[in-house]
Amino acid sequence: MSGSSSAPPADELAAVSLTDSGAAVSEAEFSQRVLIRSIIRRPDGGAGLAGQKIRVGGWVKKGRKQRAIAFLEVNDGSCEANLQVLVDAELVTTLGEVTVGQIVATGTCVHVEGTLKVPPEGTVQRIELNVEKVLDLGTVNAAKYPLPKTKFTLEFIRDYVHLRPRTNAISAIARLRNALAYATHTFFQKHGFLYVHTPIITTSDCEGAGEMFQVTTLINDAEKLEKELTKIPADLVAAKILAKDKGEIVAQLKSAKASDAEISAAVSELKIAKENLKKLEEKSKLKPGIPQKNGKIDYGQDFFARQAFLTVSGQLQVETYACALSSVYTFGPTFRAEHSHTTRHLAEFWMVEPEIAFADIQDDMNCAEAFVKFLCQWLLDNCRDDMEFMVEKFDKNAIDRLEMVAATGFVRLSYTDAVAILEEASKETNFENKVEWGVDLASEHERYLTEVKYKKPVIVYNYPKGIKAFYMKVNADNKTVAAMDVLVPKVGELIGGSQREERYEVIRDRILEMGLPLEPYEWYLDLRRFGTVKHSGFGLGFERMILFATGIDNIRDVIPFPRYPGRADL
């Protein structure tokens, strides 16, 4: 990288409103550049900024040399559109060994200063930048750069997870993901919810499915011990010799009637030698491998002195705050060790999980519907450019789908009614999965309800208790629980939630029915023992929301660093 020049005078880069067609644009705070979005996303496409001197930085998407000019399409990630940047070939010669070919190569990073001008009539651009000074340059070896200029698939760039943010698709998804995260906090903060950080490491299995990643240091400790045990025989011999030598020194000093100070110092050294020998003798008795107790792994010697896992949900923990602060939510990563390679599953994914005290299943459904509508409207209001890109490249119905959900009331029907509808439909529709009461709805059933039957989101509630988690409130019929799922077109289930069981005896019995031990859930039962309260909540799969919004087919493409069986890059 070449050295950068001093900053231009403040009056040349003065900050004023972008709505003023004749106003200057400001440099981004904490960065020595004007955001490209603030130039070309103005109502006039940036034409009103002609004549202004600015600095921009970004990466070359496309480049070509025409006569003595290098034409660069530069993108800085602030929006999906590029700014055309013109660099005179003579200017390139001042950069030393850099060639025009290196500047126009896809992937080259440029930080330049120049003057904005209106291009000749007939060109697509409304504004372009004439470069007067190249401040910094990051070149690429075009022959080795892995992202080709030609069209490539999302599957192809998964192998370059560290470079794929430079592609139009992944950068657009990143901006949409950011917008949805911001909208999530905005919605809950607006409605008086408190954001609670729940632990990543847990000792509770929220779903009772057992598909959890274990957190342990026993394996590392065992490997470390095995290495140490190979050294112990030699160390033990040396320690015995040292202790013997130190003992002889003490004996000699005593027989020579040395001073008390000399004898005391020698005795101290002898004690240390004996203590080290004792430790080595005790360690030599240890057996290599994972520690065992009564024929089972001894987790008492593990880091947390018990089994621990990566969380599958923050729900149980956030309930502790709902039972004190009333309306709370958590938003963070969750993990599931499920060996699935489908387009809808990840080993690491994010969940939005609100929990509401003094709320029943109806309140829960109202909150879930309002939240989904809010997210859809937020994208329509704030991310129109990126959504139009999604419509053009991936799903022509993406914007229509958001508009429909934002403006339409969700259908609500019981699980029993949903099964009846699907059983009738199965007479004419060949479902791969059988429909019957007592069996969970498959994705094809969920999509039939939302895409064929109603053509809008559907909330199914009151599921059989045998297919739902222990913490869901048992209804008066003792056959169903107050659970609900929000189903949407394109992805099926988007939200799963329920009214929580607040009765101590009932939830204790449910834990036992599920074959789960009571001990890890004693703290959870305390919430029912002491000041129990009616409360409800739900979880929204954040990546599924992005799939729904964008129309992207594979969930691995809507999270920055996908983790799934066999892959955990970076």
UniProtKB/TrEMBL annotation:
Keyword NADP (UniProt): no
GO molecular function: asparagine-tRNA ligase activity; ATP binding; nucleic acid binding
PROSITE patterns cross-referenced by the UniProt entry: AA_TRNA_LIGASE_II, WHEP_TRS_2
Swiss-Prot/TrEMBL keywords: Aminoacyl-tRNA synthetase, ATP-binding, Ligase, Nucleotide-binding, Protein biosynthesis
Pfam entry (one): tRNA-synt_2
Swiss-Prot/TrEMBL catalytic activity: tRNA(Asn) + L-asparagine + ATP = L-asparaginyl-tRNA(Asn) + AMP + diphosphate + H(+)
Annotated GO biological process: asparaginyl-tRNA aminoacylation
Positions of the WHEP-TRS domain: 235-291
Domain Aminoacyl-transfer RNA synthetases class-II family profile residues, every copy: 328-560
SMART domains: WHEP-TRS
EC id: 6.1.1.22
GO CC terms: mitochondrion
NCBIfam families to which the protein is assigned, alphabetical: asnS, PRK03932.1
Protein family membership: Belongs to the class-II aminoacyl-tRNA synthetase family.
Protein name (Swiss-Prot/TrEMBL): asparagine--tRNA ligase
